[in-house]
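Please check this.
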Amino acid sequence: MTTALEVRLASRPKGWPTEDNFEIAEVEVPTPAEGQILVRNVVMSVDPYMRGRMNDTKSYVAPYQVGAALEGGAVGEVVASGSPDFAVGDHVLHGLGWREYALVNTKHTVKVDGSVAPLTTYLGVLGMPGLTAYAGLLTTAEFKEGDAVFVSGAAGAVGQVVGQIARLKGASRVIGSAGSAEKVEHLTGELGFDAAFNYKDGPVAEQLAKAAPDGIDVYFDNVGGEHLEAAISTMNLNGRITICGAISQYNNSEPPAGPRNMMQVLSKRLTIRGMLVGDHQATQPQFVKEVAAWIASGELKYSETIVEGGARKAPEAFLGLLKGENTGKMLVKF
């Protein structure tokens, strides 16, 4: 193999991205130098945060550059090595997805073992989304036994884990929102949520109030907008909110108008905290130990939506993610 495909940002989206914002390019397969490995990607991740990186704005991570390959989590097989620490055939987790072959500096990758858990899980339930859920609920939101918990985007890669951890840790009630009747059924049937609703069926505030007659103590926000406003109205005194994402607003061309009820943050003495998973790497060992045990015992379940077709299908998978076409982690297989 002398050439391979990569996906580049062709132009910056205005509002919702389209296929025209991506370019599939053929490039030469590089040779690793000392301290580098050449990885043939097996599976890659598409994630909501990637939409923000398509904008030319200052944020917690640098924007993608027009004309350059996109980046994101991936797991692949080492096919050539310039390091004694990595052998041909090893599987590794790294940050250069969106391409068939990646030239990776060894200090930016870790080995993963497909015999311990499926390779896909290192991008999902045992990877960044899982750690986000674990730390965002237990550390950022300071969850305690007996809390009533509401999770928006609950059928997604992060939300599905948040709700189950809350249940396993002794929540009094776990409520989720999702975008289809099938996902609602998945939450209450497969994942053990006490209640769930389709946010497309009516005002979120009304549906949440019905699902949480005694209020909520913790809100894990993956959506923002109307969901955040509804959660504030439903929060009990001294409630805690983790702001993890705001997928409902990522494609807006104008700033959102609300929430309109921020005075309740004062009257209810609420705590609202943003969280980035990169701030919680110290929690990783405990997270893997506890969550891996729950998976092994069958107490924690996870879903994946896998798109076959590699680089050529990656833009389609990403656009589908933004439209909510996934249940659980959205992945692209090469």
Summary: The two ends are 15 Å apart (CA to CA). The CA atoms of residues 237 and 296 lie 37 Å apart. The mean pLDDT is 94.
